[in-house]
Structures are given as structure tokens and as C-alpha cells.
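HECT-type E3 ubiquitin transferase: structure, please.
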Amino acid sequence: MLLEVRRNHVMEDALGTIRYSQDDLSSKLQIKFIGEAGVDLGGLRREFFSLLVYQFSHSALTSGKAYHLD
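Here you go.
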């Protein structure tokens, strides 16, 4: 599964993509940051998950908003 995300909107883009492509969840995850050149050999995935955790914890703690998958 290729996940194309904007660096400043990782959580929003990831949740939107996962919501519409649940069949792909069992395939290998590859990350592409939109507007950036790079091949995901593992580093982009690590950076993606770091940004995802940061954005999730930051939004949940500072805004009181919760993100739910319907």
C-alpha cells in the first residue's frame, strides 16, 4: 500500500486514505511525502510514524479533539 501524505497533515491524510482502502491494510506499507523525492527503504516509514504520533498527541492534548474512524 502506497500512502502519499503531506508532511504537515500526516494524520489527516493517513486516516483519510485508510478509511477508503481497508483492503490494502495487509500489504506492505510504503510512504511518499507529497512534493518530496525519496524512496522508502524504511527511513520514510519511521519518519511517518514519528510525525503521526507527534501530530496525534499534539492535537489530542492541546485541542481536546479526538479522531475517530467511523
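Notes: The longest strand covers residues 2-5.
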